[in-house]
Amino acid sequence: MTKRVAVLPGDGIGPEVTAWAVAALQAVGRRFGHDFAFAEGLIGGRAFDETGSPLPAETLALCRRSDAVLLGAVGGPKWDENLPALRPEAGLLGARAGLGLYANLRPATLHPFLSDLSPLRSAVTGGQFDMLIVRELTGGLYYGARGRDGERVFDTMVYTEAEVERVGRRAFALARSRRRKLTSVDKANVLDTSRLWRSVMHRLAGEFPDVAYEDMLVDNAAMQLVRRPGAFDVLVTENMFGDILSDEAGMITGSIGLLPSASLGAGTFGLYEPVHGSAPDIAGRNIANPAAAVLSAAMLLRHSFGLAAEAEAVEQAVAAVLAGPRRTADLARAGDMVIGTAEMGGQIVDRLKA
Ligand code: IPM
Ligand code: MG
């Protein structure tokens, strides 16, 4: 049966890196005998320029009739003066909410052969780590009521018990499929939403007795990430805390150019995008690392299509290229040969064909 993938390249380096994610999926399709159909849609600044909306109704409709979505990145200085609802970022937030994608999976892995790229000493990282941040994606401060009344401006953090429970359940299940450890990050010493969060997580912990569970306050979590990153397996946290901690976790892997993400809802449908942004300063210059986009395609194969062996083939192809001497500038050390987006993507796809 044909599996339908909506492709939303977006802005900046989005189109360049997404092209390689598509090429990787095509190579997987040929090698393993799967039929993937791709259809492109507009999102972000480009969608605003062409249609007046950062999330045209046609794009949401395209996503809804697809089995999964591959997204590049949105945003750029060109649209900085747009009204909030017309910013490229509003397109992304609208897609997350509109598609019910409440669980955002952001793995942060330090490969042993790239461990010298981490800004943390190897005595701190232990030379490698492998954690997964599960960020609640459709609630909290991002979607609560906001406004202005005279001098007062406000954003509100709102969570329902059901919203906390569904993302918590996802995180416990993921921990069960990994090293069986879950850290729930909150600010329960101050916030009522965090006290609700913590009580729901404690109830779930009773249902998953095989998962070692701990609570951690968010300020302490920010510290522990740079103190002993190897101690984490799965972290679960609310939307804004997850936004901040996932950038921190990404940074200590040495390159934001390697980090994929998956945004999932109730079924197998999901949206997959690199964690890095649109990087307008390097757009169109054949510099960007396509690895994060390609690794996002691997997450798509695993989570939306249930193709674990195919996902591993993609991850191994990327790892083999990362271990080699020819890499994009973000990963180059003195003496390395620097290659461009196309060469890096080409190397990955060649390995997939083999
Ligand atoms: C992310 C980004 C987005 C977010 C922005 C672009 C709205 O920072 O995906 O982490 O804050 O969620
Ligand atoms: Mg962010």
Describe the structure.
With 354 residues, the chain is an alpha/beta fold. It folds into 2 domains: 210 residues, 3-Layer(aba) Sandwich (Isopropylmalate Dehydrogenase); 128 residues, Isopropylmalate Dehydrogenase (3-Layer(aba) Sandwich), CATH 3.40.718.10. Helices cover 42% and strands 21% of the residues. The strands form 3 sheets. A 10-stranded mixed sheet has the order 2-1-3-12-11-4-5-10-8-9, with helices on both faces. A two-stranded antiparallel sheet has the order 6-7. The protein has a two-stranded parallel ribbon with strand order 13-14. Helix 1 crosses helix 10, helix 1 packs parallel to helix 12 and helix 11 crosses helix 12. The longest helix has 19 residues. 3-isopropylmalic acid binds next to helix 4.
Please tag this protein with its features:
21% strand, alpha/beta, two-stranded antiparallel sheet, ten-stranded mixed sheet, Isopropylmalate Dehydrogenase, globular, 354 residues, 2 domains, binds magnesium ion, 12 helices, binds 3-isopropylmalic acid
